[in-house]
Amino acid sequence: MNKSELFKSISNDLKNRLHLLEDKPEETIETTLKALWFTAAGFPVSAEGARKLSIPDLTDKQIKNLHQLIEIRLNNTPLAHITKRQNFMGIELLSDKRALIPRKETELLGRKALELSNRIVKSRGKINVIDVCCGSGNLGVAIAHYNTNCHVFATDISQEAVELTQDNINLLNLNQRVQVKQGDLLSVFETDEYYEKTDLIICNPPYILSSKVQKMDSEIASNEPVLAFDGGMLGIKIIQKLISEAPKYLTIDGWLIFEVGAGQGSFIAQLCERSQLYQQIESVSDDSGNTRVILAQKAKPVYSQS
Ligand SMILES: C[S@@+](CC[C@H](N)C(=O)[O-])C[C@H]1O[C@@H](n2cnc3c(N)ncnc32)[C@H](O)[C@@H]1O
To answer: Is there a smaller number of Cβ atoms within 10 Å at the N or the C end of the chain?
Structure first.
């Protein structure tokens, strides 16, 4: 059987057996098989990264390896944990059990944050950015990669996530402009050195209701860290804390930008407004019309008049 016949025959088999997830739209039968094919050949690549590549010939040993990888995938192991790769905003990153697999939907936050960083750079030159709840470091490293005027401080409560972020910083050679530290929300910045020094805080927080976390698809629930999803009883525990604590670290006119769950947008925009800590609040919707990103600019200080 030549490689096209083999590809077709495996694709047909996968049509009946592969369970695809809504929140990983880049994973189709074709891109999954291509990513596994390249991984079996010794060149691991993500589904997105494999999309436009032509598959190479495989040796008999590599074909055997491919069949084994397919069985692992069919046994509910996420594709990104087999290839150890996930593409985010066009960048091939390392991905594994240590942190959430970056989702395509988070690219909306990534693109808006990048736009905002470019806007701020125009008026201020070099800027400081915090990526809090950094997971694999996808948002922070993407911003630093595309905007060379940004210095990024990344942080996550999970030591394993911090280690994966460090691996991605090393992979992209960003050690000079991206640092990562472990801590609860913004606690690692709790010193004068960081107060009012950050131009932009980016966050993709956990925002799923605790009661829904256990009901997530088993592929996700049994392979990705629960810490990445659990936003407490109402799903907004971390977001509430972020809204109240971010201004302490933001420069005058600095921005907070974060992702919210579908359906949470208007309530969370109201929380920002009611806090009176922000002067301008904007919402960004996805293609289905759901608010998925909130931008909030720190309010100007009110000085007492004598
Ligand atoms: C939804 S994931 C986002 C990961 C990554 N930024 C992304 O976009 O794929 C949320 C992350 O928040 C982290 N996290 C949860 N609670 C936290 C806290 N109190 N302080 C800091 N990080 C926290 C989790 O470990 C997880 O890595």
So the answer is: C
> Does any ligand 1 atom lie closer than 6 A to the CB of residue 245?
no
Pairing assessment for the beta strands 85-88 and 291-298 based on DSSP bridges? unpaired
Do 101 and 173 form a contact (C-beta atoms < 8 A)?
no
Query: Does the Cβ of 198 fall within 6 Å of ligand 1?
Result: no
Q: How far is the CA of 253 from the centre of ligand 1 (A)?
A: 25
Is 99 close to ligand 1, i.e. is its CB under 6 Å away?
yes
Q: How far is the CA of 43 from the centre of ligand 1 (A)?
A: 29
CATH H-level, domain 104-298: superfamily: Vaccinia Virus protein VP39 (3.40.50.150)
pLDDT at 36: 98
Edge to edge, what strands does the sheet with 127-132 contain?
Answer: 178-182, 150-156, 127-132, 198-203, 250-259, 291-298, 278-285
Q: Whole-model pTM above 0.90? A: yes
Token match 């390249």: residue? 38
Tell me the average pLDDT of the chain.
96
Burial of 190 (0-12, 13-18, 19+ CB in 10 A): middle
**CATH 3.40.50.150 region(s) of the chain?**
104-298
